[in-house]
Amino acid sequence: MQSKRVWLLLDSRDIGGIETHVALLATELRKRGCSVVVTFMAKYGEHPLLDRLRAANVEFQFIDGTLPSLYRAIRQQRPAVIHTHGYKAGIAGKLFGKWLGVPALSTYHSGEPGVGRVRWYLEIDRALSHFASNIAVSDEIARRLPAPSRVIPNFVPTAHTNLSNSPLTVAFVGRLSAEKGPDTFCELATRVDRVKFVVYGDGPMRSELEQQYGHAVDFRGRVNSMESYWGEIGLLCLSSRNEGLPLAGLEAMAHRVPLAAFAVGDVAKLIPSGTEGYLVEPGDVRGMAQALRAWADSSDETRRAMGSMAQRHITQNFSESAVMPEILKAYSAVLKV
Fold first, then answer.
1. Core vs surface per residue 286-302: b (16+ CB within 10 A) or e
2. What residue spans of the chain are helical by DSSP H?
3. How confident is the model at residue 337 (pLDDT cuts 50, 70, 90)?
4. 1: pLDDT strictly greater than 60
5. Are 114 and 86 in contact (CB under 8 A)?
6. What end-to-end distance do the CA atoms of the chain give, in Å?
7. N or C: which end of the chain has fewer CB within 10 A?
8. Where are the alpha helices (DSSP H) in 111-205?
9. Is 152 in contact with 330 (CB distance < 8 Å)?
10. Among residues 88, 83, 85, 89, which one has the least CA distance to residue 103?
């Protein structure tokens, strides 16, 4: 494995869950002596992920955005494996890998069905799962794939945060698009008193939501990293309508920020006992509001204890030390080493 050159292939112009995962995976692979190259299918400008890659001494490259150029790059560089992330990279990487005899490994991150053209891309990417070895980040995503897959969750680095307080601030972190439910989060801000509601993220719904709920919600916009903000947050609200295994939830819990979440995708795995946060039936806005009030009414000591339980659960089950061995097994199976 150490002598093999791995491509992590994606098509991206911004930072989200996939990009954060790719940066973490590339860093961990490099630590283990693997020759890894993060390969962007196109360059849309200075990508905000590059600072993280440079800091970790991870090699990266850009293709010029055309499929013939990607084909030539694979043929000339001959990576040992193409590990794809996202539907565009998944489709191109699997097809070109098949034609050129380069093994492909695809991670399926998306828990939402998609709409319009995106829906068709997602369906094509799933149909081509027969051309690759596959990783699904949740059981639900695995069930939708026609080919076999390994269920390997997202992971986050082991955090050493020891927050001394639990501010009465509830946050939404993610893309402001329908599947993530930012409208539900904003509606909650009008139902729950004594709690500050903050949104970190951008997307197509921002303008409308800010106009309607700007009096009740603090919209901070997109941030490249949440690392310096977790200390300002007491609870993360996952209001998604569809999910796989959300990286924002893992990051929050790793920093002792518990969750209040709708039970979609594999989110229930993050709150298995109820001591790590609050799990609410999908779409039950009233139930979510009750959960937020219960958290706000708890003592500061109780809220800190919940954060400690959340961090412990992540360290034991979703840290790099817990998950990377499974990813390395997937690589070994592809490379037959």
1. ebbbbbbeebbeeeeee
2. 17-31, 50-55, 67-77, 87-100, 116-127, 139-143, 182-189, 206-213, 247-254, 285-297, 300-317, 320-335
3. low
4. no
5. no
6. 7
7. C
8. 116-127, 139-143, 182-189
9. yes
10. 83
C-alpha neighbours within 13 Å on the C-beta side of residue 7 = 30
- 150 C-beta neighbours (distance < 10 Å), count: 16
Contact 321, 158 (CB under 8 A): yes
Question: Quick check: 115 pLDDT over 90?
Answer: no
Q: Would you state the structure tokens that stand for residue 326, as one six-digit string?
A: 């499974």
Count of alpha carbons within 13 Å of 125, Cβ hemisphere only?
A: 28
pLDDT interval class at 116 (50, 70, 90): confident
Among 140, 114, 125, 148, which residue's Cα sits nearest to residue 9?
125
CA angle (172, 190, 265) in 5-degree steps: 40
CB 299 within 8 A of CB 306: no
Closest CA to 42 of 70, 66, 65: 65
Q: How far is CA 158 from CA 121, 125, 317, in A?
A: 34, 32, 11
Output the pTM of the full model: 0.89
- Can you tell me the distance from the alpha carbon of 43 to that of 278, in angstroms, rounded to the nearest whole number? 40
Please give the structure tokens belonging to residue 21: 């995962």
**Would you call 228 helix, strand, or coil by DSSP?**
coil
**What's the gap between Cα 136 and its chain centre?**
12
